[in-house]
């Protein structure tokens, strides 16, 4: 196989600008995504569902959290195709606008008391739009940042995508703290809407930054090459890179740790079975995310020195073990224990997997199918992670108190990520233009054509 021509030079400062664009977009996406999670656990059962059956209302509310994850694989097929055909920047702008709009609309929805069963239907529709947006966000931001980054610092620069995710979660928690402290009648009538409306501010800032971002050198090189971009990226992906797609699906199941921590554990801790204060539990998430903001770039720097696999495996296996400690701490009702285990599990150890996966997954694929491979693989895995909350609510039993069964379930979902990490290739030293190219000689001429044809 001949060595590809050197990619075009990016304008100076583009790696940092790409990292900033990834950070702020992911912050918005996951601010929106996780204010929904907090609201689904604390507010929506009473606003959109039948209060006469609190247990069922909570179960249905948590199920709507998972609906977005079900929509994400569908969005990934479409957005991955477009991103590999037309470029990363267009998808990054589209996902930002769609997420901002759908989140704002959730804040405008009427309650069940006002419009009856139409209220949860409208809620689910907006949640589906959030899911479609999120399907393309991390894959496009990760691809954009990876392809702009210096080869020896790809893990560090791509980690800004996940730093943005954690910042969004932190922002969502901090915004919800004063809202959760409102009197019950104010919280349920208008208070819960404010966090959803505030997303417009971040959306405007992110839109301005992303509109001025240049396309990546690698995508530009691929577009200008004689073979052009893939006409049907999905065909090339599933024919030549199916094993890596399966690895990404398995690896992405580690996100179950995040959804169980953020949604189910919050619901469990504030339930009648435990009775912990909801503001205190929101502070657990806030402090864990503060620690994660510092831990993610440090883990990423380590991955640039020793490799992606050992760091990812540390995060996946360690999270499986520490989930037992965290849920046990909640079961005791001890605030100090809950804070310590929450920060250690989510802020430190889970951050290892979070920091490295954008580079780890993205480096499995060549430029022409990278966005499709990342989007489809992660979103199928994330779909399972999203519904893990609903399954956990059922596994926990009728009183919602069987924390050990939920911890065991979460640990089981961390096994496929460990297998994915063990079987994957180490790509730390592979030049960016050669990533994923081991199978390109098998690609047929019928699969590609120049851009615009």
UniProtKB/TrEMBL annotation:
The keyword Membrane applies. Pfam families: Sugar_tr. It is a multi-pass membrane protein. InterPro entries: MFS_dom, MFS_sugar_transport-like, MFS_trans_sf. It comes from the Bacteria. It is found in: Cell membrane. The keyword Chloroplast does not apply. Keywords: Cell membrane, Membrane, Transmembrane, Transmembrane helix, Transport. The chain crosses the membrane at residues 20-45, 57-79, 91-112, 194-213, 248-268, 280-299, 311-331, 337-361, 373-397, 403-424. Residues 18-428 form the Major facilitator superfamily (MFS) profile domain. Gene3D superfamilies: MFS general substrate transporter like domains. This is MHS family MFS transporter. It comes from Streptomyces kunmingensis. The lineage of its organism: Bacteria, Bacillati, Actinomycetota, Actinomycetes, Kitasatosporales.
């Amino acid at each position: 196989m001949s060595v590809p021509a050197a990619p075009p030079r990016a304008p100076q400062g583009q790696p940092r600008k790409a990292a900033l664009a990834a950070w702020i977009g992911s912050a918005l996406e996951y601010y929106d995504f996780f204010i929904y999670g907090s609201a689904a656990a604390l507010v929506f059962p009473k606003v959109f569902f039948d209060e006469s059956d609190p247990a069922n209302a909570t179960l249905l509310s948590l199920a709507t959290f998972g609906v977005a994850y079900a929509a994400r694989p569908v969005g990934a097929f479409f957005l991955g195709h477009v991103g590999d055909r037309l470029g990363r920047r267009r998808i990054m702008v589209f996902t930002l606008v769609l997420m901002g709009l759908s989140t704002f609309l959730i804040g405008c929805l009427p309650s069940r008391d006002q419009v009856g069963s139409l209220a949860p239907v409208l809620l689910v529709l907006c949640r589906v739009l959030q899911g479609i947006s999120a399907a393309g966000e991390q894959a496009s931001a990760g691809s954009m940042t990876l392809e702009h980054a210096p080869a020896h610092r790809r893990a560090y620069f791509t980690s800004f995508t996940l730093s943005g995710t954690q910042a969004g979660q932190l922002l969502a928690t901090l915004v919800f703290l004063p809202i959760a402290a409102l009197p019950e009648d104010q919280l349920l009538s208008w208070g819960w809407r404010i966090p959803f409306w505030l997303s417009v501010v971040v959306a405007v800032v992110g839109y301005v930054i992303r509109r001025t971002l240049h396309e990546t050198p690698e995508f530009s090189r691929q577009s200008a090459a004689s073979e052009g971009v893939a006409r049907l990226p999905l065909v090339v992906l599933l024919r030549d890179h199916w094993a890596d797609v399966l690895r990404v699906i398995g690896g992405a199941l580690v996100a179950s740790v995040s959804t169980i921590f953020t949604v189910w554990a919050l619901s469990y801790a504030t339930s009648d079975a435990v009775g912990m204060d909801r503001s205190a539990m929101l502070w657990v998430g806030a402090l864990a995310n503060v620690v994660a903001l510092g831990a993610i770039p440090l883990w990423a720097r380590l991955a640039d020195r020793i490799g992606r696999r050992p760091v990812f495996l540390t995060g996946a296996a360690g999270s499986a073990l520490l989930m037992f400690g965290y849920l046990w701490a909640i079961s005791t009702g001890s605030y100090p224990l809950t804070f310590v285990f929450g920060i250690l599990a989510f802020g430190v150890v889970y951050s290892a997997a979070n920091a490295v996966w954008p580079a780890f997954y993205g480096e499995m694929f060549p430029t022409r199918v990278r966005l499709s491979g990342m989007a489809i693989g992660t979103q199928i895995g994330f779909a399972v992670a999203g519904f893990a909350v609903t399954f956990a609510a059922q596994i926990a039993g009728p009183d919602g108190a069987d924390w050990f069964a939920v911890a065991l379930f979460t640990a089981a979902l961390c096994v496929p990520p460990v297998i994915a990490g063990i079987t994957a290739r180490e790509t730390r030293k592979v030049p960016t233009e050669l990533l994923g190219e081991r199978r390109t000689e098998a690609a047929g001429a019928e699969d590609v054509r120049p851009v615009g044809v």
